[in-house]
Automatic annotation (TrEMBL):
InterPro entries: CheY-like_superfamily (IPR011006), OmpR/PhoB-type_DNA-bd (IPR001867), Sig_transdc_resp-reg_C-effctor (IPR016032), Sig_transdc_resp-reg_receiver (IPR001789), WalR-like (IPR039420), WH-like_DNA-bd_sf (IPR036388). GO terms for molecular function: phosphorelay response regulator activity; transcription cis-regulatory region binding. It comes from Acidovorax kalamii. Residues 131-231 bind DNA. This is DNA-binding response regulator.
């Protein structure tokens, strides 16, 4: 039985969700703040956290970062703020999906099931494992440490969202991706409601790759179509990021 932790200071929401999740065979637990969340994490084998952004004391973004620093437990963020910057920030802190309030409980269950299936697939043995180091156009991507090394030897750290977006580009270089395709490939359904969020991520990744935003040569904008990763040389196999 999967244990799900719902972290929200609205008692009505936590009561509704824990009862609803139980109908689908989940062992659901509730917490209203950072302290009770940590207590529940210590008391139960939590398999996924549904985490509200707006919490008393320590906010959900900070808690997502804290969780990701010491655990790979999947996180679905909840927020009433339908803002693309909040979406990107939550994803960069390590969230696996993102839902705005109000929401349908059945849709949240569907998201939970999707994320859990994806995590199970990530941990399944692959027929051919990816390379730990991938080189492209003088850059080196270290997939385990999740950082880049520039042609000048400078280490460039990547956020979770930037790493997944770069992996998506590297798996199929020189192909035009629409925004919808990038959102689906890089983050599943996490950014469906925030079309501009993929533009923000591309801008951040360009900056990390020292790609001039006024005249980008590596991540090119194809007007009316999307983006193209114009890599000239590629050595190594890029795996699907966990």
């Amino acid at each position: 039985m999967q244990h799900i932790l719902v972290v929200d200071d609205d008692v009505e929401i936590t009561t509704l969700l824990t009862e609803y999740l139980a109908r689908f065979g989940y062992a659901a637990h509730a917490a209203g703040d950072a302290l009770s969340m940590r207590a529940q994490m210590a008391a139960h084998p939590i398999g996924l956290v549904v985490l509200d952004v707006m919490l008393p004391g320590t906010d959900g973004i900070t808690l997502a970062r804290e969780l990701r620093e010491r655990s790979r437990v999947p996180i679905i963020m909840l927020t009433a703020r339908a803002n693309p910057y909040d979406c990107v920030l939550g994803l960069e802190m390590g969230a696996d999906d993102y839902m705005g309030k109000p929401f349908e409980p059945r849709e949240l269950v569907a998201r939970i099931q999707t994320v859990l299936r994806r995590v199970a697939g990530d941990t399944a043995p692959a027929r051919q494992g990816p390379d730990e180091v991938v080189r492209f156009d003088g850059w080196t991507l270290h997939s385990i440490e999740r950082h880049l090394v520039s042609p000048q030897g400078v280490v460039v750290p990547l956020s979770n969202a930037e790493f997944r977006l770069l992996c998506t580009f590297l798996r199929m270089p020189r192909r035009v991706f629409s925004r919808d395709q990038l959102m689906e490939q890089a983050r599943g359904r996490a950014m469906d409601a925030f079309e501009r969020s993929i533009d923000l991520l591309v801008s951040r990744l360009r900056s990390k790759l020292s790609d001039d935003p006024r005249s980008p040569s590596m991540i090119r904008t194809v007007r009316g179509a999307g983006y193209l990763f114009n890599v000239q040389s590629l050595q190594g196999q890029v795996g699907w990021p966990h």
